[in-house]
Fold this sequence. Notes:
- The chain has 169 residues and is an alpha/beta fold.
- The chain contains 5 helices and 6 strands.
Amino acid sequence: MPASIELTKGDITAFDGDAIVNAANEHLRLGSGVAGAIRRRGGPAIQEECDRIGHCPVGSAVVTGGGTLPARWVIHAVGPVWREGGMDEEAILASAVRSALEVAEEVGAKSVALPAIATGVFGFPLERAAGILTAEARRFAAAARGVERIVFCLFDDRALAAFEEALSS
């Protein structure tokens, strides 16, 4: 049975499921945005694990424990910095979300929540990212063996509307 795909507006750090995805940078420093919220709510153990891992290539994902978060795991997916589309950013973003979902399946997560990866400080256009992320989630959901539920946990009404549009088309 394919995994379900859901949309919600809210704080991803409050997701009561198996794994959440962090919109990470390649140095795995939990700075601002989603990463900062994860650092604040999840405690120092997550950054300590990230420091031991050290690096994650753009378009890839790695996993740490969830610290004091409700989720057991944090999957750190590194999306591209938007450079007007001339640096293969769309393919790299697709790779990042695909990698995050594959890691979720590898660790045994049944449910995973994702943010709008790369749309914050990395500047990826929201509507474009929504189309790429939902398309990759659909492809993954159709073939998923372990993951049963994929939730896009979005920060505000604008992001929620962009993902609703992308998912309905």
